[in-house]
């Protein structure tokens, strides 16, 4: 089927997240139905007929037709538009609603538990035969096999999903250019203060407080704060608790796993342990709030509002590597 082949070429062109092929029900777009009936696609980049893929993404913080440079690449190369469906924007009820119609989406990104449930319910397509036609994906055959063998009652070893964050390096090799989470300061403001040594989180708060005193607003005169938080991701990615705090625990090499913390020595402690990084980072943010350097909108604003503030220079501390794009 043409829709199947074109979908997999999109996947192999941009392998960045857990992806599965949904089983489109009677609500599938007319473009998809027409393409599916048209037969096998031949050649790469020769797609005269436009198509729209419903892209259900549990991690997305944007909903609607995708825009930007990646949307242009997919449109130019495959003549495809991606309609993003985000439970973080539309609300978690959209998951149950779309599941009940039998059409979660054409390409689906899910948490592990929902992935298992959707396979059981027949909402996820068996891609065993298709995936073998794509050498780039088969490079990660071991990781893909491990994920799918863990599915209950998958005795035949069929492939339904592709795990995220796969690498071809050893588990102990670090392969990112920038650490995923670390204190990232505005270099111009830090230099203005003489680039003082920062040995711990107390020193960090001292520097941030001085930054805010020197620059309480951005260039446009809008209020600026060292920290600006948002609540959209709380409880996501299998983390129990506040997502902004849970991500900061990695500064200590500790990762939230449900109600536990995985420590660097591969032991677990309860998430509320006073010896753990979650407790430490709660105190870090509480101290920051007491100093008045946390955006007062943090308890109510969503990701889009926080994102706009980052873009306009109203936030002085970042902690995700991708935030440097702002």
Automatic annotation (TrEMBL):
Keywords: Signal. Pfam families: SBP_bac_8 (PF13416). Gene3D superfamilies: Periplasmic binding protein-like II. This is Extracellular solute-binding protein. InterPro entries: SBP (IPR006059). Residues 1-24 form the signal peptide.
């Amino acid at each position: 089927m043409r829709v199947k082949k074109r979908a997999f070429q999109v996947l192999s062109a941009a392998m960045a997240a857990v992806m599965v092929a949904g089983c489109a029900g009677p609500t599938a777009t007319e473009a998809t139905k027409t393409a599916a009936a048209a037969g096998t696609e031949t050649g790469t980049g020769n797609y005269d007929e436009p198509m729209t893929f419903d892209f259900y993404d549990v991690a997305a913080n944007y909903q609607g037709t995708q825009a930007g440079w990646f949307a242009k690449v997919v449109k130019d190369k495959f003549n495809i538009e991606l309609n993003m469906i985000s439970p973080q924007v539309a609300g978690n009820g959209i998951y149950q609603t779309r599941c009940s119609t039998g059409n979660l989406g054409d390409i689906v990104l899910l948490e592990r538990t929902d992935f298992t449930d959707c396979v059981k319910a027949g909402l996820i397509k068996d891609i065993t035969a298709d995936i073998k036609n794509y050498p780039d994906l088969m490079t990660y055959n071991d990781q893909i096999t491990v994920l799918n063998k863990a599915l209950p009652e998958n005795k035949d070893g069929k492939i339904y999903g592709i795990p995220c964050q796969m690498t071809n390096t050893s588990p102990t090799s670090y392969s990112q250019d920038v650490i995923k989470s670390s204190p990232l300061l505005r270099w111009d403001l830090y230099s203005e203060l003489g680039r003082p040594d920062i040995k711990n989180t107390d020193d960090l708060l001292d520097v941030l407080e001085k930054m805010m005193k020197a620059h309480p607003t951005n260039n446009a005169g809008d209020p600026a704060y060292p920290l600006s938080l948002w609540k959209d991701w709380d409880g996501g990615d299998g983390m129990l608790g506040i997502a902004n705090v849970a991500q900061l625990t990695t500064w200590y090499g500790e990762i939230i796993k449900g109600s536990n913390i995985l420590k660097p020595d591969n032991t677990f402690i309860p998430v509320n342990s006073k010896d753990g990084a979650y407790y430490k980072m709660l105190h870090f943010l509480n101290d920051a709030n007491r100093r008045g350097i946390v955006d007062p909108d943090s308890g109510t604003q969503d990701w889009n509002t926080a994102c706009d503030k980052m873009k306009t220079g109203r936030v002085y501390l970042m902690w995700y590597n991708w935030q440097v794009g702002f």
